[in-house]
User: What shape does this take?
Amino acid sequence: MDVNNLRRRANLGNVVAQSILGLSYLDGIDVETDYSEAFRLLSAAAAAGAPRAMAGLAKMYAEGRGVAKDIGEAIRLYSGAAERGEFLAQIALGRIYSRGLGVSKDLDAAIKWYTRAANQEAKVEDCAELREAKEFLGKLGRNRTKR
Assistant: This one.
């Protein structure tokens, strides 16, 4: 990854560069972990409607990484990203609602989000998150294509 090129493009307002670099700072990928820089970049990209950035920012709020933990704000951001088709945001919402992570358990909401994630099977590589969604839905004996 060309970090200098990404920084230059991010500073010029390129939303894709802001998202990639922000997520890199969040998780310490090819750069030192820097939550304030992650927050700055992800906030800018999320404000422009970038779903992956919204999900990254939501993760910061959900886990209290560099910001005060705020499950309400995390859900708001995850929901915006999930509605735009962001697979990992859909998985995150499925987990939050199925396990009652900071909110009351809501199986209908969990089914909704895990179903939307599972319905992306043709778009995402087989991964633990896809298997998680399918397993959750399978245990309930629900037809995931109904939602």
Q: What stands out?
A: The chain has eight helices and no strands. Helices lie at 3-11, 15-27, 35-47, 51-63, 71-83, 87-99, 107-118, 128-140. Residues 143-147 have pLDDT under 50 and may be disordered.
